[in-house]
Write a structure and sequence with these properties.
18% strand; 346 residues; 15 helices; alpha/beta
C-alpha cells in the first residue's frame, strides 16, 4: 500500500488536535504571550487586570524581544507554542513564511498604539541634542569617510561634531532580536546612510548597501544590554557618562532619574510622538494565533480587555504606563478586527 505524505500544515493541524485531545479538558488553561520588551509592560498590565476578573487565569507574559517572540510564535500550533506575540514592528515576510511552514497560517494582527525610540541618560548629566545623522555616525559599524566606508573611527561625541560633548561614546541598547533594534536601524541608520554621497552610490536594498549601512558597531561603543530595558535604566542611573536606547514608556516611568535627548530638534514627549513630530516614532502590535482561540480559554476575552477604551483609550490605564494611544479614528477599526478575529491577508 502506498501512503501520501502529509503537508506541513495538515501535519501541524493533526499534532495540534492530538495534543489538545489528549488533555483532560484543555491542554493549557493560561494564555501564553511572548515578544517585545517595549510592549511587555502594556501587555503585563493588561494581563494583571484581566486575571483579577477571576473568570480566567492571569496570562503568562515573557519578554523575549520581537524577533525572538516571532521565532517562538511561528514554531507551530498546539499547547507547546505561544498564543500571542508582542511586536514593536510589523511582522516580516520571512517570519510569515516561517509561520506558514509550521502550520501557523491564520494570524490576527492588531495595532495597539504607538511608541518612540529614545536616547536617554541620567538627569545629572548634560542633555544631548543630536541629529539622526550624528547618531548614525556615533553608532554605525561602518561610516563614510573620504569617499569610502571605513570602520567607525569616532570614539568621542565631539569627534563627530565639535559642538557635542567631549565625552566618550558609550551607549547601551537592545540586541539584534529586538524590534527596537530593528526600528533604530530603519529610522536612523538606513536613511542617514542613504543620504550620504557614499550611500547614494549604493543601490538601496542591495547586499552592498546592507553590509555598508545597516550594522551597529561592535567595538565597545555600543553595548548590547539584552531584552530587559529596566536594566538599562538602572545602569544609566549608576553610570552618568553612559546613554541608553529603549522605548519611550521606560523614559516616561523614570523621568525623575533619566532624560531623553532631542533628535532633529524634537524632544520625545507623549505629544510629539502621538503627533508623529518626533522622528523616531513607531507603531506597536500584537499577533494572535487564531487556531488557539477555541482551545486556550480566555483569548477572545483578553483581546476585548486590551482593546477596550478603559485600557487603550486616551484616558485608559495603559496610557499611565506610557502607551501612546491610537487616534480616535483608528481605534474602532482595530477593535473590530480584534473582536472579529480578522485574519491578515495572505
Amino acid at each position: 500500500m502506498r501512503f501520501q505524505a502529509l503537508s506541513p500544515a495538515l501535519l501541524a493541524a493533526l499534532v495540534f488536535a492530538t495534543g489538545f485531545a489528549s488533555a483532560p479538558a484543555v491542554a493549557r488553561d493560561q494564555i501564553r504571550v511572548v515578544g517585545s520588551s517595549t510592549v511587555y509592560p502594556f501587555i503585563t498590565t493588561t494581563a494583571e487586570r484581566f486575571g483579577k476578573g477571576k473568570s480566567f487565569k492571569t496570562p503568562v507574559v515573557e519578554s523575549t524581544g520581537t524577533g525572538g517572540g516571532f521565532k517562538l510564535f511561528c514554531s507551530g500550533v498546539g499547547p507547546s507554542f505561544p498564543d500571542i506575540a508582542n511586536a514593536s514592528r510589523p511582522i516580516k515576510a520571512s517570519e510569515r513564511a516561517a509561520c506558514a511552514a509550521n502550520g501557523v497560517t491564520a494570524i490576527v494582527e492588531i495595532k495597539i498604539g504607538y511608541d518612540g525610540i529614545v536616547l536617554a541618560n541620567a538627569q545629572q548629566s548634560a542633555k544631548l541634542a543630536l541629529t539622526r545623522a550624528q547618531l548614525y555616525r556615533a553608532l554605525a559599524k561602518n561610516v563614510p569617510l573620504n569617499g569610502a566606508f571605513v570602520p567607525n573611527p569616532y570614539k568621542r561625541w565631539s569627534e563627530i561634531d565639535p559642538s557635542l560633548p567631549n565625552e566618550k561614546i558609550e551607549v547601551m541598547g537592545p540586541p539584534p532580536t529586538s524590534g527596537t533594534r530593528d526600528a533604530f536601524v530603519e529610522h536612523v541608520l538606513e536613511p542617514s546612510c542613504a543620504a550620504t554621497p557614499e550611500g547614494k552610490a549604493l543601490q538601496s536594498g542591495s547586499d552592498a548597501f546592507r553590509a555598508s549601512c545597516l550594522s551597529v558597531r561592535e567595538d565597545g561603543a555600543y553595548v548590547e544590554a539584552g531584552e530587559n530595558d529596566n536594566l538599562i535604566v538602572q545602569k544609566l542611573k549608576a553610570n552618568p557618562a553612559s546613554h541608553g536606547i529603549f522605548g519611550f514608556s521606560y523614559l516616561e516611568q523614570n523621568t525623575d532619574q533619566i532624560q531623553g535627548a532631542a533628535i532633529d530638534g524634537v524632544v520625545p514627549t507623549f505629544e510629539t510622538i502621538a503627533s508623529g513630530q518626533y522622528p523616531l516614532s513607531r507603531p506597536l502590535f500584537i499577533y494572535v494565533k487564531k487556531a488557539h482561540v477555541e482551545q486556550v480559554p480566555g483569548i477572545a476575552a483578553f483581546l476585548a480587555e486590551l482593546t477596550s477604551e478603559n485600557a487603550w483609550g486616551p484616558s485608559g490605564y495603559l496610557v499611565d504606563k506610557g502607551l501612546i494611544p491610537l487616534a480616535d479614528s483608528e481605534r474602532p477599526a482595530w477593535a473590530a478586527k480584534a473582536a472579529a478575529l480578522t485574519e491578515m491577508e495572505k
